Amino acid sequence: MAYTAIAKMKKWNCERFGQDVGPYQPYLVNGSGMGHDLKSAALRFLHERCEGLRFSAEKEQEEQKSGKFLGTSYSPNQIPYNMQMDVDRLCLERELEKFIDSGVAEDAYTVYYSYLEMFFGAYGRSSKMIELLSEFESNASSLLMKHRDHYSHSVYVFALGLAIYETNDAFRSTFCRFYGFSDREEHEAAAFFLEFWGLCALFHDIGYPFEIPFEQVLAYFEVDRKQRGADSLYLAYRNMGCLSDLGAHGKERFSEWFKTPVESVEMLLACGIEQRLGAAYNVSVEYLYDTIRRKPTDPNEFGYFMDHGYFSATRLYQELVEVCGEEKLTMAHLDALTAIMLHNSLFKFSIAFYKSKEKHKAPLKAELHPLAYLLMLCDELQCWDRTAYGRNSRTELHPMAAEFDFGRGAIHALYCFDADEADKITAYEAAHREWVKSGAKDAPPRLKAYSDMAEKDQRFRTDIEKIVDLSDYPLFITTFLRTVDRKNKHTYLSRSSFLHIYDFAVALNARYHYEGHEDEVSVRTLEEEFDRMSLEYKLSNINQVKSFSKYLNAIGCFYTDRPVDYEMLRSFSEEQIAVFAPMEHARWVQEHRAMGWSTGDLYETASQICDADDPQKALREQLRQHKLCMTGDFGEMEIAKHYLSLSEEDQGKDWKPFNSMLKLIKKYDGLRIYRLN
Predict the structure, then answer these.
(1) Measuring CA to CA, how many Å separate 627 from each of 13, 358, 603, 608?
(2) Which of 106, 209, 325, 421 has the fewest CB atoms within 10 Å, counting from its CB?
(3) Can you tell me the mean pLDDT for 406-410?
(4) Residue 114 contacts residue 105 (beta carbons within 8 Å)
């Protein structure tokens, strides 16, 4: 039984009502129970292996003693605490499903949101760290010579790691042995993996806003595409103490850990890496500390490259201290930080020297540092479906899609290239034949990344084999051409920075409560009300924001946070409402089916037996039942008929509050809705 607290609530409901009522077990996405593809394996990990995620026996005992629930649904104290944890996990499962289907940044956003709410406690505390990465990339990276998306990339890396853990017995056993989990602790180990793999995967590139300005300066002053080197103008960072200083408590605590003075985050990272890799690679704390310390200040000593891994690790450390406190950091947290520090260039060029014939050392084995191993492997594998920002990146040929088979202990990766780019491939292959014919001794022609995968020696795979040991995890690479279907990207004219999605969702949530009184409520009050809801209800509002661009597109409008010379929309007309109200109803119905809700009105007729502040609403959440839901198999036509069958009052719930929302979003700087005509 995957969602055991939901099952427990169902059993209790059946007993008190004497009939088969909800909540029902959420479904596992079609085929995921047996499939070894990326989507099936990653979702099965969340659905089945993470059973009991974040449960609290103490809170359950407190509920039994007091007779009061401690879990939050629409409001606090409506459901059991462990049931809330089950619903939270279902939220993450559904958001990851959406992202794997679409790959768009807006769906990556809700995966980040879910993870932060579940493991950091509140999205708002760490939101800017995540949102700014995407905004900085999309706005600043087009000036670079080479640069590709790292926001959606990180969520793909996250999904790859979940799929490998789920399907690869060798890696899973290695991870469990490393962290001391027995065979009987399957679910505890999976929960531990999810938390700390999430830290590695989702945050390993948050330091890119520090690397982008460095690359911009090099690109701006590049002349005739000359190689970077002694003649290059470059940036270096100073005053690194703001990122690397440890507080007095941290210095004392970590010095005790390692029995040596630990005065900075750089020394903490050096000690953590030496503990895991020092003996195998003959690297000392002193060498590691000196190398890490010079990463931001002396890029000329590292091939004139800036290591975003350094900034990701130090920035994440400061975030962990602010949210969790130094006293709660464990060796597992440090393993996540050192994995991030290692992943970009430190391990490759300063420890294993993987491109050097003289100094090259063995690739990393999973048993030495499982998180670092998995991060480097997945980071290399995830090269598909990434927006190209840099000037050179846009002229190269990168995979547009990928298909994976993780069965039989191996990784079979099929990388799909866009058939519309076949002329580039034809030209490359012709040039390569000429190069072979001529017997030339210079470097062969390349079409990155196609040639690295399709050429005989498969540079893409062999490079990975030099970085991580694949003897227990055989990797097979295949390429093919296909016309790429971009319909799942759902691209519309509406555009806003991610800094506004949360604000927009807060305004949407408040639209029911302040109609006619919008000027009287403060932003702080709106946000406090939003924060009191469960993750499920917060995501419902956020997903409505993500759908709003589709609604506006259908009525010839768009939203943006940029100044444009169009007429601002101040209210929706009846004609516009007639278009988007059924669309919003369809979204709501589909969302509730995915989250395991069923149709019914028992909560209205039997609410007298529920002991709560608002018994009707509390019982609705305990049953996960709503009279406007639909159950069974249904499509767009059935949903449309269902909408038309609703009373005028119920139809009004899908549109009446939106004019109030138009007034509420004006409280947030910049975001407005405009008419195209």
Answers:
(1) 17, 71, 9, 18
(2) 325
(3) 93
(4) no
Side-chain-side CA neighbours of 418 within 13 Å: the count stands at: 14
Mean per-residue pLDDT, 424-450: 82
Distance CA 532, CA 152 (A): 29
User: Nearest Cα to 48, choosing from 171, 170, 194, 155?
Assistant: 194
Q: Which two tokens stand for residue 578?
A: 């007639």
What is the rounded distance in angstroms from the CA atom of residue 614 to the CA atom of residue 271?
54
**Alpha carbon distance 66, 80 (integer Å):** 12
- The pLDDT of residue 413 is above 90: yes
Residues 6+ apart with CB under 8 A from 666: 672
pLDDT for residue 129: 54
Contact 354, 467 (CB under 8 A): yes
Q: Do residues 375 and 341 lie in contact, with contact meaning Cβ atoms separated by under 8 Å?
A: no
Query: Among all chains, which residue has been given the structure tokens 């980040």?
Result: 112
Tokens found for residue 467: 């970085």
Average pLDDT on 106-118 reads 90
Q: Are 542 and 502 in contact (CB under 8 A)?
A: yes
The rounded distance, in Å, linking the Cα atoms of 372 and 342 is 7
Ordered DSSP codes for 373-417: HHHHHHHHH--SS--B-STTGGGSB--SEEEEE-GGG-EEEEEEE
pLDDT-derived band at 395 (thresholds 50, 70, 90) equals low
Could you tell me the two tokens for 518?
Answer: 């919008």
Please state the rounded mean pLDDT for residues 298-324: 92
pLDDT of residue 86: 98
Q: What is the mean pLDDT of residues 372-376?
A: 98
Q: What is the arithmetic mean of pLDDT over 544-553?
A: 84
pLDDT band at 142 (very low <50, low <70, confident <90, very high): very low
User: Hey, is 658 helix, strand or coil?
Assistant: helix
Q: Please give the pLDDT value at position 611.
A: 72
> Which CB contacts under 8 angstroms, 24+ apart, belong to 258-267?
260/285, 264/293, 265/313, 265/314, 265/317, 265/318, 266/292, 266/293, 266/314
Q: Tokens in use for 264?
A: 């900075």
Report which of 387, 353, 346, 403 is spatially closest to residue 369, judged by C-alpha positions: 346
For residues 276 and 338, the answer to whether their CB atoms sit within 8 Å is yes
Distance in angstroms (rounded) separating the CA atoms of residues 658 and 116: 28
